[in-house]
């Protein structure tokens, strides 16, 4: 199943994460994202999912990387915020900007820290 996600940074280098409200990973923190609908491009899906989960209007950019989690093939794209204020919606129980130090205190979905590190996408201090 093809999915997309967004790597969104604040001007100070923090990274936007969502606390997942539903399985898989309910209660854990992850990049915002979701399934690509039939006939939808990755770019359109990223814009839709970021709006639904975070309230932000984004412009998707380059592919940050791809991971496989069970049946999900997740393509995560760097995104630039065009408008909005982060607010949890849709499948997100919470949304917040996190620093590198925050990652040590949050219950992250399996492999997120290592994946972000391998993509050189860890938040700045």
UniProtKB/TrEMBL annotation:
Chain ranges of the Nudix hydrolase domain: 1-122
GO function term, MF aspect, one: hydrolase activity
InterPro entries in the cross-refs: Nudix_hydrolase (IPR020476), NUDIX_hydrolase-like_dom_sf (IPR015797), NUDIX_hydrolase_CS (IPR020084), NUDIX_hydrolase_dom (IPR000086)
Top-level lineage group: Bacteria
Keywords: Hydrolase
Keyword Mitochondrion on entry: no
Cofactor: Mg(2+)
PANTHER family according to UniProt: GDP-MANNOSE MANNOSYL HYDROLASE, MUTT_NUDIX FAMILY PROTEIN
Record-stated family: Belongs to the Nudix hydrolase family.
Full protein name: NUDIX domain-containing protein
Species this protein is from: Amycolatopsis suaedae
């Amino acid at each position: 199943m093809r999915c997309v996600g967004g790597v969104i940074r604040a001007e100070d280098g923090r990274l936007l994460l969502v606390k997942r409200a539903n399985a898989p990973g309910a209660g854990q923190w992850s990049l915002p994202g979701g399934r690509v609908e039939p006939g939808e491009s990755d770019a359109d899906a990223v814009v839709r999912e970021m709006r639904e989960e975070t309230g932000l209007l984004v412009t998707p950019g380059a592919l940050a990387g791809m991971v496989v989690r069970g049946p999900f093939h997740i393509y995560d794209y760097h995104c630039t915020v065009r408008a909005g204020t982060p607010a949890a919606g849709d499948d997100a129980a919470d949304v917040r900007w996190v620093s590198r130090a925050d990652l040590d205190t949050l219950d992250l979905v399996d492999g997120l820290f290592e994946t972000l590190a391998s993509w050189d996408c860890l938040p700045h201090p």
